[in-house]
Amino acid sequence: MRTRLGDHLRERLHTFGLKAPSIAQCAVGAALAWLAATQLLGHPSPFFAPIAVLICVGVGLGQRLRRVTELVVGVSLGVGVGDLLVAWIGSGTWQIALVVALAMATAALLDSGALFALQAGSSAVLVVALVPGDSTGGLDRMLDALTGGAIGVAVVALLPASPVNLVAKHASGVLDALSTVLEQAAEAIEKRDVELAAEALEGARGTQAAVEEFEQALATGKEIAMISPLHWHRRARLARYERAVVPVDHALRNARVLARRTLAALGEAAPPSASLADSMREVSEAALLLQLELGAGREPVLARQALLAVAGSERPQGLGFSAHVIVAQLRSIVVDLLLATGAGPEEAGAALTPLDTPGTA
Description:
By secondary structure, this protein is mainly α. The protein folds into 2 domains: 157 residues, no CATH class; 188 residues, Methane Monooxygenase Hydroxylase, Chain G, domain 1. The protein is built from 14 helices and no strands. Helix 2 runs antiparallel to helix 3, helix 2 runs parallel beside helix 6 and helix 11 runs parallel beside helix 13. It is elongated, with a radius of gyration of 27 Å.
């Protein structure tokens, strides 16, 4: 019980550490947006300004520039529809239903973005519910949204989270997960341990969320590096992660098949040989090398050399059906990781010894 609580606490603290920069950006940006709208624009209650900052910056990962566009256009559409209809039909229960339906339907016809439609609908609600007794005009609310969106982008640019650290944390988790699956499968083969093989399979099945978070972190990191002059020099390091993200995803997918076949192979009359476990460990270590070299901002030369060595090693003989599948998946993982290091498809494929000769693992 204590172990579970400790793991949960560490996970929460890790999540907070990732989100803390965005929380600080939201707090500072919301205050600045309110100040700008009240003092510079002279708006008495510019609630759209800080709201725009929160939606623009957010506390998660996403496309902020698209958010700003959807926010401003969505708010403008909602305010426009709301102001027009309120002046004609007044405000009330059925008026809210009608205004929201029309605003969101119009937004859906113009753009498929969820935020766009939601902003149009919520803005229309605010107009119907709050505007009748408010002297603020629709143009002022649009200016508030634009001010907040602009300040949100400025805050991201001037008070940015480190794009490389953000991406590196998620990439590290994905590559560590890949290495762990291979290591556990190798140990299961050596010990003929079915439970350990099942544990490796369970761990492999739970890796897709980490891959998706890696992809989202990369999108956010690239966006920060694009809009923040402080991080323009990080683009080369981010490019290495961008090159690796798809092949690493493919490697994990192949690792899931490998783990499943490892579990099946341990139930066959001729279980896989220990030499196959050695090959798994070598690929596992290469994945960790890739993790370290990317994190250090270097070209993953050592990881590539390690993978090429595995690709050229001799393949175990006398394998059963499941073991043959394991070999095929391990070969695919080697190719995937070679692509992640920057090798070309032809180079990666040519590194494998042909299957009709004693070849690679």
